[in-house]
Structure formats: structure tokens, C-alpha cells
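The following record pairs a protein chain with its ligand, 6-O-phosphoryl inosine monophosphate.
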Amino acid sequence: MTTAIIVGAQWGDEGKGKIVDLFTPNADYVVRFQGGANAGHTLVINGEKTVLHLLPSGVLHPNVHCIIGNGVVIDPKACMDEITELQKRHLIQDPEKLSISPNAHVVMPYHRQIDQLREAQLGDAKIGTTGRGIGPCYEDKVARTGIRMAELIDEKRLRKRLEKILPIKNKYIERMLDGEPLDLEAIIREYAILGRSLAPYVRDVSADLARACAQKKHVLFEGAQGTALDVDHGTYPYVTSSTTVASGACSGSGVGPTMVDEVWGISKAYCTRVGSGPFPTELNNGTGEMLQKKGGEFGATTGRPRRCGWLDLFGLQYAARVNGLTGLVMTKLDVLSGFKTLSVATGYQKDGKPIANFPNDPTELDACTPIYTELPGWEEDVSLVRDINDLPQTARNYLKFVEDYLGIPITLVSVGPGREACIPLKKLF
Ligand code: GDP
Ligand code: IMO
Ligand code: MG
């Protein structure tokens, strides 16, 4: 086995960063393939917290090669800030250890501005984006009016593209969004410098990855966001603007699907969502508040409180299908200690009748209510457990129930934010 994709199986923030960091010691490459600085991946090592937005979560291990694939949208300022912070910690000393695809699109200041102005205009109907310019950047990519890394690092090309694009963006910002126009020369000054700083990292990552796969190197693909936020398979329009499911790893980095060996989904032992949109198992009560408090459920990028609810196995079954999951990692099992009973959604009903498949359409979802199965909880603190046999029987039953329902193995259980807080059940590499 040489390549594995890690994806969020819910609405993001499942703990992907922690899990990627955990498996990095045995990986040769760690690859981000979609999303941008909307992601916030938290790593806690010896009590020290690091939040990564753009750089792959393997970056704290100096020997691994980190890659930002063509499917990622890169805010060059956010990227340079992150690199500089890590360099202060003596990481990313060798530019050969971080590769950025020349085809990755660049998040420009007008993307952020358009994102924020549009959300403000939408009022209550807003998507609840992170305001990082992600949607408008992907729009430009598909409209063929985007700027790519290859252009950012070449001032002449950057100027030529911006002279065409900016007047149109400014018109849109002023006339449609009542915003302030941006100054061409100011952008070129700032972005040409950023381009020069990032140039040493820009190289053909698809060719590097093909060579790595041919040499049977271990490649770990790190998803951002989660399945229910996928632009096609999520709860559209309450989604992000990229392909968050496993197939995005191929198009977002330039490797073929025959190269992929394992796909592991990451799920919390319960469920959270940041931003607007349907959330069938949401708990707008004391139990939801307890999950939020015990789980420290505040966004790693925006600090917004995360909405909380019970584990949704019907939703996870859908995630298993659209990602082709071969394994499931369950995080935050420690947060469930102290609940007398735990509910898990094992189906949805509409007009009093169970439905066959998870409906990703928000109107359909609003018309559905979850069908719950109640399972006994446990009182014990499990955060120091490192062997599955040391978990309380009711916690083991909870895990077994999930495995049996989904028909895929749980490959690892996480019981705390720290790197060491886990119960490994299957080796990845
Ligand atoms: P990501 O976006 O999927 O990488 O997840 P985030 O970093 O946004 O959110 C996950 C949060 O849960 C972070 O604060 C992690 O430190 C924390 N975390 C991860 N795994 C566990 C766990 O097993 N137990 C607890 N209590 N916290 C965890
Ligand atoms: P990680 O990788 C959770 C959500 C936003 C919003 C929607 C669209 O840390 O799991 P966007 O800014 O992408 O246009 O916002 O997607 N969202 C996330 N939610 N975790 C994330 O990333 C997210 N990235 C975006 O809250 O609902
Ligand atoms: Mg996150």
C-alpha cells in the first residue's frame, strides 16, 4: 500500500489535521489538493497548538515533502505568513521540501472583498462563508479569468492579466456590491513581492507525484472541509466551492485514480457544522451546548461557535459511498464521556416514512427528521486510554455499532487533541 486519501466525512473540522500529522512519520509526501485558507487544521504536539490553513499538516515533520496541488486556491499572503511563522520554528528550511503547483489559482484581494460584500448583502440568507475569497476565486478558475501561481511569480504576466481582469472586477464591486474599487498598481506592488517570495517553491508537482508513486513512496493526501460541504455532493448551496470528496485528490494534484490504495474518512463521535445550512441531527438545547463546551467547538479559522448534534450514521453512510471509504477514523470519543445515553441517527423519515438514500438537497433535508437509535453512554474519562480493550464496554459497543452499520472498519480512535491521544487499530503505511 502506498497512497492514502484522508477526507472529512461530515461538515469539516473532524480532526483531519491531527490524523494527517499522526501518519506523517511514515509518509514521504503529504499533499493538499483542494480548498484554501478557509481550512483550519489544528495540531497539538507536547501541548503546543499549531493551526495550519494552507500548508499540509505534515509540515511539522522536517523530512517529509509537502505539496500544495493545483486544486488548492492560494492566498499568497496567508501562505507566506504561514511559511514565515514555521521558518521561525526552524521548519521549511529547504525550499525543495515544499512544492506548490504552478497551476494552483491565486486568491486575489478582490476575491476576498467580493466574498465579504456578497455575504453582507445576503443578510439572513448568507452561506456563512469564512470570508477568505474561496468561492469567487474558484468562480474565476472555472470562468477562465483566474490568475495562477505561474503568473503570480512572473511580474510581467501578472500585470498583463490584472490589467484585463481588474477593471471588470472593480465595475462589479462598485455597481453591484456598493464596494470600493481596488488600485491596480498597489496590487501589483504587493503581489509581485509575494510572487518573488513564493517562486522558489513553485514546481511541477504532478510529475513529482507520478515519480513518487512509481517508486512506491508513501503519499498521503490531506482533504480540507468535508463531504457534506462538497460543491457537488454536499448540501448545495450551503457548501464550499471545491471538490472535497476523495476523487478531488486526483484532479487536484494530477495523479490518476488507479494510484489510490486507501481512502479513510474522518468523523467526530458526534457532529458539528459551522456556517449556515441544514443539519438534521443538530441539538438546539442543553445537550448541544454541552457538546460544544466539552468539545471546545469553535472554528479554527474564524473562531465562530460550531453548531453541535448527534452522530449521523445515515449521513456517514452517504460519505462512505461518495468517497469510497475503506476505513473510518473516529475522533473526539473523549467528549462523549458523561452522557447517560447517546443517540445516533440510523435513518431519516419523510411524511412518516423512512427514506432510502441520504438527500443532499436542503429543501429535502428540511422535510426530513432523523430516526434515532439510543445507545448507553459511559461515565469514565477515556482520554488516557491507548488500547481498545481498556475502553468501557459501552464505548466499545458504540464503536462496534458504527462499524456494523457502515460495514467499514474503524481504523483509529482519537481520544484527545494531542498527537499521542489515540488508539490505533490499523496501520496505514
Ligand atoms: P480539521 O479542520 O479537520 O483539521 O479539525 P479542526 O482542527 O478544525 O478541529 C478539530 C478540533 O478538535 C481541534 O481543536 C483539535 O485539536 C481537536 N481534536 C482533534 N481530535 C480530538 C480528540 O480526539 N479529542 C478532543 N477532545 N479534541 C480533538
Ligand atoms: P476544515 O478544513 C468547517 C464552511 C463555511 C461555510 C462554507 C462555505 O478546517 O475542515 P467558504 O469560505 O469555504 O466559501 O465557506 O463552508 N467551511 C468550513 N467548515 N471546516 C472547514 O475547513 C471549512 N471551510 C469552509 O463555514 O459554511
Ligand atoms: Mg478545521
